[in-house]
Hints:
Helix content is 36%, strand content 20%. By secondary structure, it is of the alpha/beta class. Helix 4 packs parallel to helix 6 (133-143). It starts with 9 loop residues before the first helix and ends with a helix.
Amino acid sequence: GIVSHNFMYIHEVMTNNTEILPSNTTVMETAKKMAEMKAGLMPVYNNDKLVGIVTDRDLVVNAVAKGVSLDDSISSILSEPVLYCFKDDDTDTVLGNMSKNEVQRLVVLDSEENKQLVGVVSVGDIASKCESSDTAKSIVDCCKHYH
């Protein structure tokens, strides 16, 4: 098809924030780290393997609401499975996936072959760079499951 001026790849809008958390990090340390970095999602690693992600919502819904101890490791509250996209995916495809999975952030991997973490992308990252009303509608669809 014809590429419009609104066509964008994820690597053009993502945050190159590849800071990661070891899976034995405590809930408290995680909350402090995310606040300090103003991050809504952090990838969680066990040795060199991506084992999950933790979101600000996980801290509330899976930790505080369920009475998980602040000293417990975050491996007890991780979002499963890890949802991701690739840096060369286009933003419309990724918004469609976010909407389907009811998430507002995804980890970004370099390629199907390597699966190396290169960043994180949020609905906000895409929204800040989008000029198309179709994309704007997709963004609204992504967020509508939050009340």
